[in-house]
Amino acid sequence: MIINRRQFIFNTLITAIAGSTLIGCSQSTTSKAITAVEIDPHTTCDLDGMLLADYPGPKAQIFYQGKDTPTFFCDTVEMFHTLLSPEQVKVVSAAFVQDMGKADWDQPHGNWILAKDGYYVLGSKRHGSMGPTIASFAQEAEAQKFAGQWGGKLLRYAEIKADMVDLSGGALHDTRM
Fold first, then answer.
1. I need a labelling partner for 115 at 20 to 30 A (CA). Which of 7, 93, 154, 176 fits?
2. Which residues of 98-133 are buried (b: 16+ CB within 10 A; e: fewer)?
3. Would you kindly state where each structural domain of the chain is located, as residue ranges?
4. In the CATH hierarchy, which fold is given to the domain comprising 31-173?
């Protein structure tokens, strides 16, 4: 098949646009790998100033393009609310959540996984720092086991929608604020 010059330029342009779009959606546009930052006793939630180490349930962090330090969240609901907000215009380089199949629910530490790769349980009886939360897991079997014990619905990252992450009820359940 012979492609004329105009068709060649058009195909090259489409390929370049598609390639840059995919790079923009990837975890990082640089060769430097982004890794989760561990919380310490002084790490605070960027939304409300709460000390992350003082509360149960999965924590989260987002790295925005051009920043070397993450924005921390004391709850996965806050992270999803931020990511799914129509006002969210910052380019996300990576987002991490804790694997609650390995982390202690009451004092979660470490066990960070890429949020986009996780399995999530929405609507369980277990509460996080802001009340009802979305439990995060690296393995589907662990998420299913958790849902069997605590209730809730198993979802993948892309299945979580903005109407599932309402922040208005969280403070009503937090008796330590």
1. 176
2. bbbbebebeebeebbbebeebbbbbebebbbbbbbb
3. 31-173
4. Alpha-Beta Plaits (3.30.70)
For 101-138, write each residue's pLDDT tens digit: 999 999 999 999 999 999 999 999 999 998 899 999 99
**Token digits for 82?**
């931020």
Q: Which two tokens stand for residue 79?
A: 């992270």
Q: What is the DSSP string of 47-91?
A: TT--BGGGS-S--EEEEETT-SSPEEESSHHHHHHHHH-TT--SP
Name the residue type at position 27.
Q
Rounded CA separation 34/113 (Å): 11
The pTM (predicted TM-score) of the whole model is: 0.77
Determine which helix (DSSP H) or strand (DSSP E) holds 4, and give its type and residue range.
none
CA distance 32 to 55: 32
Question: Which residue shows structure tokens 């409300």?
Answer: 48
Ranges of beta strands (E only) in the chain are: 60-64, 71-73, 92-98, 112-114, 119-128, 131-137, 153-156
